[in-house]
Design goal:
single chain, alpha/beta, 20 strands, 35% helix, globular, binds S-adenosyl-L-homocysteine
Length: 423
């Protein structure tokens, strides 16, 4: 979602004649696009702001947009008095106001809902992977999560607006569409005639476009994984066989305190249904360890679910208390040392599964999407349908944007391969 927001901000300024630079000391405007999900991310923003204020040109404008702006609000100006603007994730389209009035302080952390989508100019050229937000905010009040505070209540964009964006992306270079939402599979839009549109309708409509070869979506909430959507994995070959379905914890007690009221049995049932819809599907998850009150036994149950589902490509985090959340004031907060120990155990197991899965791909042919050259310029980086990085030697002539690659080697982090000869 932040990648998308960053692209739109860049498009907005490019439309006003500005050019992007990586050189802080040369920039006329410096924008930090921020994430507030964990305290560490917020802390990093403020230390970066401290560095930037020393490195930037004296008259360069600088500020923050996104969730840290919303979290900190006017307090950001107190901490870094040189800041010129603080704009929340639903008000960054107001950025041009600071260009028009550079001597003012611009603060807007309002939850404007879908307003920004009408205000932002379209990008002239789409990246090969086009991120298309289909909703804003989230109605699941997970007790650890700051997102409902920073991005507000859940609102789905209209079916027609989303499809308009998809068409534009397809016409300007997109090959893969990634639908975005905090609760993306909960997408539900009712038009003026009362017709209801779900994520499965968006996928079906998008798949009709010849230019679009791959479709995915993130991130999903387990109980919103409805049968119509599961069925898309059976019927729509462009939908990638890979799904991030965060479970967060394998302990029923912890899930209840997280206010994620699904049973483990139901979760497993959904995974089984997905596997029977598409036998080559792989699942990844997000995990939080050290949630308030998590016992050794609770943590063991998380390890059990990892063993059961064999998640690939997962994200795991130490619980981080956040303002405006219920869990931050719960009793029995877990000491950092225990969180770190549990995270190391979980990570090492997740890495082992990832390595085994990567090794199991050796000898297979996977249809991959070109991402760009690697740092050395000697290799090309592709993405497999499971979002693994696959590296091949540079080739002479045209680089295919999509190609079958035969996987020749693998380790925990990536795959090696070569362009497969046609069968
Ligand atoms: N709806 C989005 C939420 C974004 S946050 C999603 O489901 O992906 C992404 C992940 O960050 C969450 O799934 C959760 O595992 C983790 N996370 C959220 N709040 C956290 C916190 N307070 N401490 C640690 N990890 C957190």
């Amino acid at each position: 979602m932040n990648v998308y927001d960053g692209q739109r901000i860049a498009a907005m300024l490019t439309a006003r004649g500005m050019k992007q630079t990586d050189d802080v000391s040369a920039a006329d405007i410096i924008i930090l696009n921020t994430c507030a999900v964990r305290a560490k991310a917020t802390d990093k923003v403020f230390s970066a702001l401290g560095r930037i204020r020393n490195a930037k040109k004296a008259d360069a404008l600088f500020g923050i947009v996104g969730c840290v702006a919303r979290e900190a609000g006017a307090d950001a100006f107190r901490r870094i008095p040189e800041l010129n603007f603080v704009l929340g994730p639903q008000s960054y389209h107001k950025l041009p106001e600071i260009l028009e009035n550079p001597d003012t302080k611009l603060l807007n952390i309002d939850l404007g809902g879908l307003e920004k989508f009408d205000e932002l100019p379209q990008m002239e050229k789409s990246p090969a992977v086009a991120y298309i937000p289909i909703q804003e905010g989230c109605n699941h009040c997970c007790t650890y999560c700051i997102v409902p505070y920073t991005r507000g209540r859940e609102i789905s964009r209209s079916f027609n607006d989303v499809i308009k964006d998809v068409n534009h992306a397809a016409q300007t270079g997109a090959i893969e569409i990634c639908f975005l939402g905090q609760n993306v599979n909960g997408y539900k839009y009712t038009d003026s005639d009362g017709a209801i549109y779900r994520l499965s309708d968006l996928i079906r409509e998008t798949a009709k476009l010849d230019a679009i070869k791959r479709i995915r979506f993130t991130s999903s909430y387990p109980t919103e994984m409805t049968d119509d959507l599961i069925d898309m994995f059976r019927t729509e070959p462009k939908l990638l066989p890979f799904l991030n379905l965060p479970i967060q914890s394998g302990s029923q007690n912890v899930l209840t305190r997280m206010n994620r009221p699904y049973s483990l049995d139901l979760y497993i049932d959904i995974v089984d249904k997905l596997k029977s819809a598409r036998s080559d599907i792989q699942i990844s998850s997000d995990f939080i360890v050290g949630f308030p009150g998590e016992t050794d036994e609770d943590f063991e149950q998380t390890m059990d679910i990892v063993k059961r589902v064999r998640y690939i490509n997962s994200y795991s985090f130490k619980y981080s208390p956040r303002p405006h959340t219920a869990a931050a004031v719960m009793p029995n907060q877990i000491p950092e040392s225990i969180k770190a120990k549990r995270l190391a155990i979980l990570d090492s197991y997740l890495n082992e599964i990832q390595r085994d899965f990567n090794l199991s791909c050796v000898g297979k042919k996977l249809n991959c999407l070109y991402e760009g050259p690697d740092k050395t310029g000697k290799h090309l980086v592709y993405r497999t349908p499971y979002m693994q990085q696959c590296i091949i030697d540079s080739i002479d002539g045209n680089i295919p944007s999509m190609t079958m690659i035969e996987i020749t080697a693998a380790n925990k982090a990536s795959l090696r391969g070569k362009i497969a000869k046609p069968d």
